[in-house]
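Quarterly update, task 2.4: D-MYO-inositol-1-phosphate-bound model.
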Amino acid sequence: MNKMTTQEYNQICIRVCEISRKAGKYISDQLAQVNPSEIEQKGHHNYVTYVDKSAEILIVNDLRELLPNSGFIAEENTAGHESQKFKWIIDPLDGTTNFIHKVPLFCVSIALMEGDEIVVGVVYEVNLDECFYAWKGGKAMLNKNEIFVSPIQDFDNSLLATGFPYYDYGKLEEYVFVFKHFMKHTAGLRRLGSAAADLAYVACGRFEGFYEYGLNSWDVAAGAFIVQMAGGVVTDFSGGNEYLFGREIIAGNPYAHPEMRIVFEELFGRVSNKD
Ligand code: IPD
Ligand code: CA
Ligand code: CA
């Protein structure tokens, strides 16, 4: 089977935006109804509700119709991991802890992989009705407008985002060290509680950079692709390409990214051989 054309990626992307909005509507309709007895813990501080699972089923059904015979990497495991040429990487509700606490910031995140390459990414932030999306050969968009990463060059005036590890504390000391460094040398740090939103905000220039470790592919696949299509740079902590499945990510505009990477290189004692 040949690769799809840019127009086909675009058509799929538009449809994935609709599917994300539909799932987002379901999620926001449930917000007032979730009560503590319906919150389960999948692991240490790792929460899930029936809303995460039902939203994923809705999404998977719609994507199956859109692209029959595609495989899935979906957080709540409602679909098979078949190794198909086309694979969807889905986080039906990124920001579950926010959702449970009724903090209005959570996203639907859907990416399409063709072979080893992401070709479509959609992050839909439900509360502000903001759909961030990009397709291979095309553009990065927020609703109907093209987006670009921030033009700010001065790291000292850069605003960064991060997430705090909540179960894998193996690198906590280094992480705190990095955190202290950025506290002193940037305009500030934010912790939104949704990695997909963090990345989408880098893509549209609200943040100059984002870093986190311990994330899964469904947290970052769509957002990282949108950042790249908006002119940003995404790597793992060593400057390599293992940010999708390697559980560490640095994303930023072309000025903040190298500044951040150098800090990780010095503190984690890693030297990239990729550039
Ligand atoms: C979480 C969010 C959060 C990040 C966590 C993720 P979830 O995803 O992206 O920002 O710090 O590591 O697990 O569990 O709400 O889908
Ligand atoms: Ca997530
Ligand atoms: Ca999730």
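Highlight for this quarter: Residues 199 and 223 are 5 Å apart (CA to CA).
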